[in-house]
Design a protein that fits this description.
One of its GO terms (molecular function) is D-glucose:sodium symporter activity. The protein is built from 28 helices and no strands. By secondary structure, the protein is mainly alpha-helical. It has a domain at 55-312 and 334-411: Sodium/glucose cotransporter (Up-down Bundle).
């Protein structure tokens, strides 16, 4: 066990503060499900944006980045850097629309946008599918990382790790609801970022590394430093750069990076006090998540290649760890074993905070689906608000138990990431276009969901038994093609959404674009005036989207160049980032 007295004091103090916030928030959150799952819809952008950042900074995120860097170098991070485009799309094309919808959850949206029994089925099924299945997968992934850290740094069993951190999280998230989760997230973000920076500082100072200059010139590292994969290796260039940047970001549904927004991102936007705060919260999250946070993780990952060059060295360093969990992602917690007293406490607490922030969000989000979109909608629609809050707390505990169980069955973080990508392949485009094209209906989404899931099952259990195995990227592209063909065909041949529902949706959300021309024409034919003053400027949104993407990538690679010994190019890119951000904020005034 590597923690000393002061380290334990820091960790215990964090647990106490988290529980205190949960208790403090419990009275307000117990009033009704709007307070419990939406914090009353009156929170400012900065607390919501920080909460989004904290949630995506889960315990398995640095493990995932370490796994990627050790296998494919810095450029391997394009598999998640590409989702920056998804985030900027949400900022400028969906944030205001979600806030105007007035729904409690993104799943409630289905019966606002679609009609008939198909819409009701979709809402109920997605509540179970996302509330239980998907959330359990997410929780199991971050719990696996917590298990590895607990085993390496604390010397405790997987079950003990889950019980200690899980129980504390369940208590404060079930008592305080979303309000307790969000305000705890703020503290967790500060701790998480400070811990990541401290970990990077100590890793670079390790005797085997010998500082930044030695790191970037080390023979084991020089071929890992490219920001873009070498074009000479066509397969790598295709799989970790071209496909993520040009296909994956708009076509794949992935939690936290849903095209058009979804899950906890939408939950935070709905909790904003107004449309402006909703937009600003996602913008803040997108900038911080992609432009500021990656480098501490990447530096630790690079250092780990020198200190632990292979699996044998990791196993030798931690002979008591379960051999099944010693994978490349184990190198991040392994590097943390070198932290000095005090800093060790900060770093471990930061990782616990990262775990708890993601866990609490997924628990609250999953419970909101189970309560609002299944229990209240289909089981007991006459439930009192007090009863619904109680059901939400029971659902929170249940989801945690299931997620902890599944965590014990997984081996590495990249495994979870790949599973989620394949299951969501091909569904992304429908989540974008349903806001901008009247023809998409509930049946389209049902078919997209079924086709994507069945294709994933086919590749997981059937294909290899009869045919030559395919690469992961080939399976992904086939999944996208099959799913997209199925739902587009369904949109054209199935019965459209009731016109009354479409008119009501347009009136409420002010959904713009040529895809609504038919509905706008109908509204005009009935003598109803269409007030376009609340429709955002499409041209300005496109320009702002481009400026945001350029600004964040320029900042990311500019700071990276400075860190890795190329200050001239780094400064030039930082200047470009400043210009892009200036243009971005200037354009915001137009919508």
């Amino acid at each position: 066990m590597l923690l000393q007295g002061i380290d334990w004091l820091i960790l215990v103090a964090f647990f106490a503060v988290s529980l205190g916030i949960g208790l403090y928030s419990s009275r307000q959150s117990s009033k009704n499900i709007n307070e419990f799952f939406k914090a009353g819809g009156n929170l400012p952008w900065w607390i919501l944006g920080t909460s989004m950042v904290a949630t995506t900074f889960s315990t398995d995120t640095p493990n995932l980045v370490t796994d990627i860097v050790r296998k494919n170098g810095i450029s391997g991070n394009w598999v998640w850097w590409s989702f920056l485009l998804t985030g900027m799309l949400t900022v400028f094309f969906f944030a205001k629309l979600w806030k105007r919808s007035g729904v409690l959850t993104d799943i409630e949206f289905y019966e606002l946008r679609y009609s008939g029994k198909a819409a009701s089925f979709l809402r109920g099924f997605r509540a179970i599918f996302l509330g239980l299945f998907f959330n359990v997968v997410i929780i199991s992934g971050v719990s696996l990382a917590a298990i590895k850290i607990g085993g390496v740094l604390l010397g405790i069993s997987p079950m003990a790790t889950l019980l200690i951190s899980g129980v504390v999280t369940v208590i404060y998230s079930s008592l305080g609801g979303l309000r307790g989760v969000v305000f705890t997230d703020f503290i967790q973000f500060v701790l998480s970022l400070a811990g990541a920076i401290a970990a990077a500082w100590v890793a670079v100072s390790h005797p085997a590394v010998g500082g930044l200059e030695n790191l970037v010139n080390h023979e084991m590292i020089v071929d890992k430093l490219d920001f873009i994969p070498d074009l000479a290796n066509k397969e790598i260039f295709l799989t970790i750069f071209l496909i993520p940047l040009f296909i994956q970001w708009w076509s794949v549904w992935y939690p936290g990076s849903e095209p058009g927004g979804g899950g906890f991102i939408v939950q935070r936007m709905l909790a904003a006090k107004d449309e402006k705060n909703a937009l600003s919260s996602v913008m803040f999250f997108t900038i911080v998540h992609y432009a500021i946070r990656p480098w501490p993780w990447i530096l630790v990952a690079l250092c780990s290649i020198i200190v632990f060059p292979d699996m044998a060295s990791l196993r030798d360093a931690f002979p008591n760890a379960d051999p099944s969990i010693v994978q490349d992602d184990m190198a991040y917690p392994a590097m943390l074993s070198f932290m000095p007293v005090g800093i060790m406490g900060l770093v471990v607490t930061s990782l616990v905070a990262a775990y708890m922030s993601t866990l609490s969000t997924m628990l609250n989000l999953g419970a909101s689906y189970m309560v609002n979109d299944f229990y209240l909608r289909f089981i007991k629609p006459d439930s009192s608000q007090k009863h619904l809050v109680t059901v939400g707390r029971v659902a929170t505990v249940t989801i945690m138990i299931l997620g902890g169980y599944v965590a014990l069955q997984l081996q590495n973080a990249l495994q979870t990431f790949s599973i989620l990508l394949q299951i969501g392949a091909g569904t992304g485009l429908i989540y974008i276009l349903r806001w901008y094209w009247w023809r998409i209906n509930a049946m389209s989404e049902i078919v997209a969901m079924a086709a994507s899931f069945l294709t994933a099952l086919y590749f997981a259990f059937v294909h290899d038994a009869y045919f030559d195995p395919l690469a992961t990227h080939e399976e992904l592209i086939i999944g996208i093609m099959v799913t997209s063909f199925c739902w587009i065909l369904t949109a054209y041949i199935s019965t459209p959404t009731d016109r009354e529902v479409l008119v009501s949706f347009v009136k409420k959300t002010k959904a713009p674009g040529p895809g609504w021309k038919r509905i706008h024409n109908f509204m005009g034919s009935t003598g109803e005036k269409i007030d376009t003053s609340e429709y955002f400027d499409f041209q300005a949104a496109i320009l702002a989207f481009g400026a945001g993407v350029i600004g964040v990538f320029s900042f990311l690679f500019g700071s990276g160049n400075i860190l890795l010994g190329d200050p001239l190019n780094g400064i030039l890119l930082m200047v470009l980032a400043i210009i892009a951000f200036w243009a971005l904020f200037a354009l915001r005034k137009r919508f």
